[in-house]
Amino acid sequence: xxxxxxxxxxxxxxxxxxxxxxxxxxxxxxxxxxxxxxxxxxxxxxxxxxxxxxxxxxxxxxxxxxxxxxxxxxxxxxxxxxxxxxxxxxxxxxxxxxxxxxxxxxxxxxxxxxxxxxxxxxxxxxxxxxxxxxxxxxxxxxxxxxxxxxxxxxxxxxxxxxxxxxxxxxxxxxxxxxxxxxxxxxxxxxxxxxxxxxxxxxxxxxxxxxxxxxxxxxxxxxxx
Length: 224
Fold this sequence. Notes:
By secondary structure, this protein is mostly helical.
């Protein structure tokens, strides 16, 4: 059994757990939980939908990590209350979100830089800076969403943190660790563009993405 098959089966396992969660919530007549878990399940399908819509091949590792992140943050965190049970749960997941969004931002501008459809060349420093701002920007909009959800629907997405019951410390801490994760990915991306190292998780994902989507990187292949 190859590595991709194992990762795809693990991703499917997490999705099956979500489906079981929906069934359990319906059985208990917990309609709101059933609705939320159904939404979480649909979110885990987004990488596959995106790949088919835009005809790109997303590395199985990235899909698996994305599904695990959604599972841990929304299903375990929000539905099962892990944000309250484990004090560092929110911090860890926001750091991971900075990593993931940084990679997405990096790949977005890297594809633009390498495709023949865009007659523009961006320096490695700009690409890395864009990846950082992209991840941080999405993090800011997520905090907007948490605030609006709490005010309109009386959720508790902005949680007490470090003795502050207002949620302000939670918001600032989330943005700080978002920035930390994004900065790490930006620096790794800059290093990749400057020296093209072969070691490291991010470098592996980037190389696999390029290999699986050669039509997006014609400039790269022409230079090679």
